[in-house]
Amino acid sequence: MLLGRHELKHPLCLAPMEDVADRPFRLLCKEMGADVLYTEFANCEAVIRNVPREVAKMEVTDAERPMGVQVYGSNVAALERAAGMAEAAGADFVDFNAGCWVKKIANRGDGAGLLRDLPRFRAAVAALRRGTQLPVTVKTRLGWDADTIVALEVARMLEDTGVQALTMHCRTRVQGYSGQADWSWLPRIRAVSAIPLIANGDIASAQDAQTCFEYGCDGVMIGRAAIQRPWVFQEIKAIFSTGNSPPEPSLRERVELCIRHLRAHVAFRGVPRGIFSFRRFYGGYLKNVPNIAHLRRDLMTYTDMEQIIERLHAFVDAYEQSE
Ligand SMILES: Cc1cc2nc3c(=O)[nH]c(=O)nc-3n(C[C@H](O)[C@H](O)[C@H](O)COP(=O)(O)O)c2cc1C
């Protein structure tokens, strides 16, 4: 499939994730085998008002390519200008978020709210296309709720609008993150539309990715599993190429990766903000490690990075000695 000008076969994409998939995390996942990256979503109206935090989200560095800049909103004039700004910021393609389920966004008709108004959805995509020479892709959900699934109409509409690829998070807006993603919609979408299709929702293993490819998808997108295990991308690639699971990283390898991520995160976000915001990542790196209540408490209270690193090293040393 093509993303931007990049020809990719069965790419493993890192999902856009607000407050998680910032540059340090994206680069870490790329090093771990992610083929395509996306920015956190930027609000088109804030972007055109030059709100610094939103404009900064759009920045693309060469090391991150191929990378999409994701925007959301439904004001066509703002979307058109925001698309041009994404292009100026160095995007390879512009991704449109039509799947955000958060009440404040969806209930005002943006994000997944567009699934209740397809003419407005189409107009928003058309505005993005007018605003940039770059390809436009769309990320959405199956529909607003189980009784109003519009995935097939949306796929046909987007193909007709000239969208380069469709990412489908196989849940409805009402589901949020509850229940299981329903991948059975993927072959149905494939049957009605030739639009390049990226599967999303609950993909966490090579088996999951394989199932989505067998359903006719061109790519897969991984979100929460990458927060838990950023090495999931290389694990999937290793299984696809050798048929065997690589060994799970040791605790020391996981902790060293965590420390590298911590240093990059804090360098990017500054002190103390980065120390606080990194706290959401420890759970993933330390998953299934026994007796970590005290360690976890310390990691949630320490505000000095070197103290955190020392504590992590001491924990691994003690863990290895006890094995
Ligand atoms: C913390 C967090 C932030 C997210 N932010 C965004 C976002 O900015 N844009 C977007 O399209 N989706 C966002 N999502 C949704 C993910 O991209 C993805 O669709 C969802 O997590 C399902 O995939 P998964 O089961 O692999 O996690 C976010 C998800 C999480 C967990």
Query: Radius of gyration, rounded?
Result: 20 Å
Figure out the total of helices. 16
The residue ranges in which pLDDT falls below 50 over 5 or more consecutive positions are none
Class based on secondary structure composition and strand pairing: alpha/beta
CATH superfamily of the largest domain: Aldolase class I
Profile the largest sheet: 9 strands, parallel
Question: How many runs of DSSP E, i.e. beta strands?
Answer: 11
Q: If classified by CATH, what would the architecture of the largest domain be?
A: Alpha-Beta Barrel
Helix content: 40-55%
Distance from N terminus to C terminus (CA atoms, Å) equals 47 Å
Mean of residue pLDDT?
98
Beta-strand portion reads: 5-15%
Please tell me what the overall shape is.
globular
In short:
The protein has 16 helices and 11 strands.
Describe, in plain words, how this protein is organized in 3D.
This protein is an alpha/beta fold and 323 residues long. The protein has 2 domains: 241 residues, Aldolase class I (TIM Barrel); 72 residues. The termini are far apart. Strands 3, 4, 5, 6, 7, 8, 9, 10 and 11 form a 9-stranded parallel beta sheet that branches. The chain has 16 helices and 11 strands. It is globular, with a radius of gyration of 20 Å. The longest helix is centred in the C-terminal third of the chain and has 19 residues. The mean pLDDT is 98. The chain is 47% helix and 13% strand. The relative contact order is 0.11. α8 links the parallel β9 and β10.
